[in-house]
Amino acid sequence: MGMFVISKRHNGDYKFVFTSRKGKPVFTSISCKQKSDCEMIINAIRENIEVFTITRKCTVSGKFFFRLSKGGLVLATSRKFSTELRLAKGIDEIMRNVPEAETLDFSVNEFVFPDADIPGGEAG
């Protein structure tokens, strides 16, 4: 199963990445001003992936990628694939795994582990 990972860009905008079950990025969304926009796009993709258009592309250097769009608006662009077969497998993985994919939110910079300099924060 893949997963959607929401994060914050350096400019303060939000994005999400759909990763494969092995943790490799498959596609990355456009920038969104609000985290709720990311969540809305993720839910739309998860619930109705069939209504989105997947356009296959090729770079001048011979790498393959796709764009995910709806109503002419490009919402995400895939990573580059070395062959058309790998591109097809990437698209197939999306179609199979998106409906059950979890969403992880890494957009908040809260530290999970206490700082070692803070008293009581050291392991020992």
UniProtKB/TrEMBL annotation:
Gene3D superfamilies hit by this protein: 2.30.29.80
Q: Which InterPro entries match?
A: DUF1508, YegP-like_sf
Q: Which organism is it from?
A: Sinomicrobium pectinilyticum
Q: What is the lineage of its organism?
A: Bacteria, Pseudomonadati, Bacteroidota, Flavobacteriia, Flavobacteriales
Domain of life (superkingdom): Bacteria
Quote the protein name from its UniProt record.
DUF1508 domain-containing protein
Q: Where is the DUF1508 domain?
A: 61-105
